[in-house]
Design brief:
Blueprint lengths: L14 H21 L2 H25 L5 H27 L24 H14 L30 H10 L1 H7 L4 H5 L5 H29 L4 H27 L17 H10 L3 E2 L3 H6 L6 H6 L8 H14 L6 E2 L1 H14 L19
Helix pairs in contact: 1-10, 1-13, 2-3, 3-9, 5-6, 8-9, 9-14
Keywords: Membrane, Transmembrane, Transmembrane helix
GO biological process, one term: lipid metabolic process
GO molecular function, one term: oxidoreductase activity, acting on paired donors, with oxidation of a pair of donors resulting in the reduction of molecular oxygen to two molecules of water
Length: 371
């Protein structure tokens, strides 16, 4: 049975409507950028302090990790520090959201984060490829990360039968998936990428991996002396907490039931209005309180982030109602839901599309229908 089109038939826009959509969204962006200033700088500096102090407190408590309450508290605080560093600090700074401050600590081109993957690789695979070609099959490597089948339009392979199992492993080791994504090991195996290219990309990644492993699993455990093992295990658990959280938030951003996937030809001669249209239809928001939004790096506002990746993410909650109203005027689905609901849909996709009989869904329209 052919899969139903996910909200394709009632979301067609004419070229005139797309032009108008782009004008409205551009105007909103310009208004926000004109208002950016001291409160945004104060916000990101406070996040930076939160990363530092929760990290110091967590590592300090782990030094007394032989006592279970201290180990649990230290692990939790270190995990929170790593989450904030990756999600609200590193991810947003590397998008250039705070380059206007001209502060080297928040320079998007040079910022390095607490993860085994290099920031340079992330800026290419995420900032460029993912944000330019969001949910475009064969162009956005984040669609399944080369491991998972999440849409019926993806060709089924026998390896997908086991994806409900290795999706769990991928979540636990998510930082490693991010780290090796740009190596494109599949292309190397198929002879489409040379070993010389792989070696060139591996050298800086190897240095970053070595630095991270030495810091978390050698240096800090050694500083703990007789408490070496509790500190090592605390660091391991904190990294696992961060990995599971980032996997959950990121997958909820583009792989829920109503998130859509697009064929390659949709980017041919793509206008700004159609690019905006595609970002909205391929993204999903999460509802929650202020603390939840901060811990998600404001990727809980994935739609706003994909429309405006260079606007400070702390502004997304303010503009979300306006974006939703614009979507309503143009008949575009504004996909949002609770974390439990959205992640439940992601999990269902992972299980459902592991099997071949759920495949061969009809690809959605490459371009909005023109009038």
């Amino acid at each position: 049975m052919t899969a139903a089109l996910p909200y394709a038939l009632n979301s067609q826009l004419s070229e005139a409507q797309l032009t108008a959509l782009a004008a409205e969204l551009d105007a909103l962006r310009d208004r926000v950028l004109a208002d950016i200033g001291q409160r945004d700088a104060d916000y990101i500096r406070n996040i930076h302090k939160a990363v530092r102090y929760t990290g110091l407190a967590g590592r300090g408590l782990l030094m007394a990790g032989i006592f279970p309450p201290a180990w649990l508290a230290g692990t939790a605080l270190l995990g929170i520090s790593k989450i904030l560093d990756n999600m609200e600090l590193g991810h947003n700074v590397m998008h250039g959201q705070f380059d206007w401050m001209r502060d080297p600590a928040f320079n998007g081109k040079t910022f390095e984060w607490d993860i085994v993957g290099t920031s340079d690789n992330w800026r290419y695979t995420h900032n460029f490829r993912h944000h330019t070609y969001t949910n475009v099959r064969g162009m956005d490597d984040d669609v399944g990360y080369g491991l998972l089948r999440l849409f019926p339009e993806q060709r089924w392979k026998s390896m997908y039968l086991f994806q409900p199992v290795y999706a769990v492993l991928f979540a636990l080791l998510f930082q490693w998936g991010v780290a090796i994504q740009n190596l494109e090991l599949g292309r190397v195996a198929k002879g489409k990428k040379s070993w010389a290219e792989l070696k060139e990309q591996w050298i800086p990644l190897q240095k970053k991996i070595r630095s991270q492993l030495l810091k978390d699993y050698v240096l800090f455990p050694l500083l703990a002396g007789p408490f070496f093992l509790p500190v090592l295990l605390g660091n391991l658990a904190a990294n696992g907490i961060r990995n599971l959280w980032t996997f959950t938030i990121i997958f909820c951003g583009h792989f829920t039931t109503d998130a859509e996937v697009f064929p390659k030809e949709c980017v041919d001669n793509e206008t700004r209005g159609h690019w905006y249209w595609r970002q909205i239809r391929g993204s999903s928001n999460l509802t929650g309180g202020k603390l939840f939004h901060i811990l998600s790096g404001n990727l809980s506002h994935q739609i706003e982030h994909h429309l405006y990746p260079d606007i400070p993410a702390c502004r997304y909650a303010e503009i979300a109602p306006e974006v939703q109203a614009i979507c309503a005027r143009y008949g575009i689905r504004y996909n949002k839901g609770s974390l439990l609901t959205q992640f439940g849909q992601v999990t269902k996709r992972i299980v459902k599309y592991a099997f071949p009989w759920t495949g061969k869904g009809k690809a959605i329209t490459a371009q909005p229908q023109t009038a």
